[in-house]
Amino acid sequence: MPTAVRSFGKINIGLLIGDRDDDGFHELRTIYHTIALHDVVRVESRAGMGIELRSKDERVPLDESNTCYRMAERVCKLLKKRCKLTITIEKKLPVQGGLGAGSSNAVATLLALERELKAEIGLDDKLRLAAAVGSDVPLFLLGGAVLGVGHGEQVFPLPDLPELHCVVVTPETGVSTPKAFARWDELREGETAAGVRARRSGLTDGDNSDKINAFSRCVDSWLNGILTQQPQSKRVASGVPGGNGRGDRAEALLLDLVRAGIENDFERVVFPENPELREVKRALERQGARYCSLSGSGSAVYGLFAAREPAEKAAAALTAEGRRALCTTTLSRAQYWQQVWK
After folding, report:
1. Phi, psi at residue 14, to the nearest 5°?
2. Which end of the chain has a smaller Cβ tally under 10 Å, C or N?
3. CATH 3.30.70.890: which residues of the chain?
4. Does residue 118 carry a catalytic annotation?
5. Any idea what DSSP says for residue 175?
6. Which among 255, 251, 321 has a CA at the least distance from the CA of 283?
7. Marked catalytic residue, from 39, 136, 256, 265
């Protein structure tokens, strides 16, 4: 019997793009959060040699470019194992959707291979393997709320957030992340040139290097609000009105998120070239989402709600408009690891 693993998606709560380093990669700051939407990856090992990929979804590459193939190759090399691997990918997450589907599939393959090959790989080795496959792969070795820095591959677990209900809209449009970065570089070059002209005219212009610090301050402010939240009984005693517990915490969390001004920089280049995605964000806002954003470089756009009922109503309304809208929830770190094995 093959080993089956749920391969969960993620959303980005804010994403700041900094300058490129000498290797050509951009410095990033983002908060990842795993969600309950998922693919299923099945891995089977038997005598022989080679890696075979299977999927009924024609969008999934079945060659060496697939993240599952690249991960399996690295794991076998690390463990010095020779075997015939069959990896079957059941797709529900969109391809080029910004939900981390390929990256999550790679980690699901890694976890399944540990069981199939009866081997244990240390966390440091897992993180190294994950970063070699892709910048956002390591987050799926943590789950829950995760801070991503560097190129996004340096990951740090954040405190669990209250459960948030999420409506994810997945248009047919696919967005290429490399092309989105290229468009960002063109935008920044234009802004830099305009800033030089403005300074020569006696005007001022913001420095992109300051954006990283500004984003970090926004995130710190938002997370400090979470960490300093008191249990309901203490909040009432201190004079702050109490409410119905988790729902109120989620609502306060989303309001603080909006006030912090945490945004996704990719929207500045993806929306002008794909105006239908901007309209999806507006549609989610009209349906009452407290916070809306492009996830990664897109094309998925999500809206966060404090409660299930308004999220389900929003998903139904968007579906009636002809959009592919899925209602899901965020997954805490504990929930992620409790549900990852199918």
Report:
1. 85, 140
2. N
3. 168-331
4. no
5. -
6. 321
7. 136
23 is catalytic: no
pLDDT tens for 147-206 read 999 999 999 999 888 899 999 999 888 888 999 999 999 998 888 776 644 444 344 344
Domain 168-331 belongs to what topology? Alpha-Beta Plaits (3.30.70)
The ranges of the chain annotated as CATH 3.30.230.10 are 3-160+335-339
User: Per the confidence metrics, is the pTM higher than 0.85?
Assistant: yes
163: its two tokens: 């459960």
Return d(Cα 87, Cα 219) in angstroms, integer: 38
C-alpha to C-alpha distance for 28 and 16, rounded to whole angstroms: 6
| Rounded to 5°, angle at Cα 310 from 304 and 313 | 110
> Annotated catalytic residue: which of 10, 91, 126, 281?
10
Second CATH level (architecture) for the domain 3-160+335-339: 2-Layer Sandwich (3.30)
For residue 341, give the DSSP letter.
B
